[in-house]
Amino acid sequence: MTNITIYHNPQCGTSRNTLALIRNSGAEPEVIEYIKTPPGRETLQQLITAMGVPVREVIRQKGTPYAELQLDNPALSDDQLLDAMLAHPILINRPIVVTPLGTRLCRPSEAVLDILPAPQLGAFTKEDGERLINDKGERVASN
């Protein structure tokens, strides 16, 4: 059994597409709805470290209290940014996927293809109609 975890928001199309791509590889991931069950500080820090990105890159701005909390202030430390994400889980950008091949913020959703251990099993089209995978399970070249 493949050990894959997705930090998922079912209200987010990108997150839904990413989950569907994982399932299209034959895997059934552990799905953590992080708004209902937020990660603890240590887990969140481990995820960010594993992604190899700055804390700021994992903060979602759209549809969150980002502006009212003035999180664009460059003087804020990583610890302060983590505090904000822990207090307001909606600030955690999604989806974050963990596989044996790596950890990644999967925006766009097809970024998950680079860290899935198994190939796609069949065709896949995103919710917006963009075709990503053909009938042979191969990635379709983007325009």
Could you explain how this protein is built, in words?
This protein is an alpha+beta fold and 143 residues long. It has one domain (5-133): Glutaredoxin. The protein has helices at 13-23, 41-51, 78-87; strands at residues 5-8, 30-33, 96-99, 102-105, 124-125, 131-133. It has a 4-stranded mixed beta sheet with strand order 2-1-3-4. The termini are far apart. The model has no long low-confidence stretch (mean pLDDT 95).
Throw out a few tags for this protein.
143 residues, alpha+beta, Glutaredoxin, 4-stranded mixed sheet, two-stranded antiparallel ribbon, 3 helices, 22% helix, elongated
Secondary structure elements and their pairing?
Layout: E1 5-8, H1 13-23, E2 30-33, H2 41-51, H3 78-87, E3 96-99, E4 102-105, E5 124-125, E6 131-133
Parallel strand pairs: 1-2
Antiparallel strand pairs: 1-3, 3-4, 5-6
